[in-house]
Design brief:
Layout (H helix, E strand, L loop, with lengths): L1 H13 L2 E5 L35 E9 L11 E9 L9 E10 L6 H7 L1 E2 L3 E5 L3 H14 L14 E5 L14 H9 L18 E2 L2 E2 L1 E8 L8 E8 L14 H4 L12 E7 L5 H17 L9 E8 L23 H21 L3 E2 L5 E2 L4 H10 L6
Parallel strand pairs: 6-7, 12-13
Antiparallel strand pairs: 1-2, 2-3, 3-6, 4-5, 4-13, 8-9, 10-11, 11-12, 14-15
Length: about 400
């Protein structure tokens, strides 16, 4: 199996552009954190992914090319873009949303209007720091091409685009993300399994000085709690090796070898739910992602861009252009299980990203090693935390 993964990685490295429709299973099966015996609380949905919230779709475009010395504008290229569509690409219906900045050394466009209106229009896009502008503009172009927002009477859009910095491995100043990559990520978005690790916006990211990237997880609330689902997707590029904790175990201290460049940030976290929540409640949900992040050891330092968005797929057609909308809202007193689910799924999504990511060599032969699965299991066993 290890040999097959290596061959797949080599083939991927030869491709300039890899578009990955997440509705299809990955070509090579990879273990996730639970498969390695990492213990987590809570019950996941069938895919243990943000797409367990009905209607949510995810798409990636991954760009990998070149090797050796960095030549700005030529590469090496280790980057991409991820599209997260709250109601899928076939719907122009808005969703209630809220967002939160734990530390603001980063960018998430469109959030002023989310605060003001309480609604999120269109996809959530995640990419590298210096590609926010082109991704934002391309989302507008995609929406105009598809006649959105439908029936608005005016042509404008304030897309939500978030970023983390991949300049250790990637030619971040080469501006390799193009509008066609954004279109491809949106058009290729699917429900079902979500590719994790070195895909999409997470391609060149580093987490706790291991290779990082995209991760996802979900939680289903017990039947007596309305059958609601919470899903989380992260793009993790945060933390120093010594900070990393998995299942309460100081994994970063126990595995100190070959640290990549590590700063205090950043991470983007998106939380989806089908529970009927209003914008002020969704902001409360977004804040709880901080606690899941903290469980993995992050302190969200001064250089960190830790920004979180939460949305609800309940209350369809709440954003009518006129008239009165009749809404449902979960009681504040009943939100604690959703808070718990958000914290649990955020923690697991980050660990899933670390487990899925593969060793990558990029610009100037900088290298970020994957979290070694065998050593992770050994450390968990040493602390009596291995679940299988």
């Amino acid at each position: 199996m290890q040999k097959r993964r290596s061959v797949a990685a080599i083939i991927t490295g030869l491709l300039l552009t890899c578009s990955n429709a997440t509705g299809a299973m990955p070509p090579v099966s990879k273990p996730r954190a639970r498969d390695l015996g990492v213990p987590f609380r809570g019950t996941p949905g069938p895919e243990n992914a943000i797409t367990d919230v009905a209607g949510v779709e995810v798409g990636h475009v991954t760009l990998i090319s070149g090797a050796g010395k960095l030549v700005v504008g030529r590469g090496p290229v280790r980057t991409g873009v991820t599209a997260l569509l709250p109601r899928g690409k076939e719907s122009a219906d808005q969703v209630f949303a809220g967002w939160y900045s734990l530390n603001g050394n980063g960018e998430m466009t469109g959030t002023t209007w989310v605060d003001e209106s309480g609604f999120l229009e269109g996809p959530i896009m995640i990419t590298n720091t210096h590609s926010v502008g082109v991704v934002r503009d391309a989302v507008i172009a995609w929406r105009v091409k598809h006649g959105r927002p439908e029936g608005s009477g005016y042509w404008w859009s304030l897309p939500l685009v978030a970023e983390t910095w991949d300049g250790f491995l990637n030619d971040v100043n080469g501006f390799h993300i193009k509008p066609e990559h954004v279109f491809e990520a949106i058009d290729g978005a699917r429900a079902g399994p979500v590719r994790e690790g070195n895909f999409g916006g997470g391609t060149g990211m580093i987490c706790y000085e291991f290779k990082g990237g995209i991760g996802t997880a979900s939680r289903r609330l017990p039947a007596q709690l309305y059958h609601y689902t919470v899903g989380v997707l992260v793009q993790c590029n945060c933390g120093r090796r010594s900070q990393l904790q998995i299942a309460g175990v100081p994994v970063g201290i126990e595995i100190p070898d070959h640290p990549a460049y590590g700063d205090t940030g950043s991470i983007i976290i998106a939380v989806a739910t089908d529970a009927p929540l209003l914008p002020h409640q969704l902001k409360r949900i977004a804040r709880r992602a901080s606690l899941g992040l903290a469980r993995t050891g992050s302190v969200s330092g001064n250089g960190s861009g830790d920004m979180f968005v939460a949305f609800s797929t309940a209350n369809p057609r709440a954003a009518l252009p006129s008239g009165i909308s009749h809404l449902e809202m979960l009681s504040n007193d009943d939100m604690n299980p959703l808070f718990e689910a958000t914290v649990e799924a955020t923690e697991e999504a980050i660990v899933n990203a670390l487990v899925a990511a593969e060793t990558m060599t990029g610009a100037d032969d900088h290298k970020a090693i994957a979290l070694p699965h065998d050593r992770l299991r050994a450390v968990l066993k040493k602390y009596n935390r291995l679940s299988r």
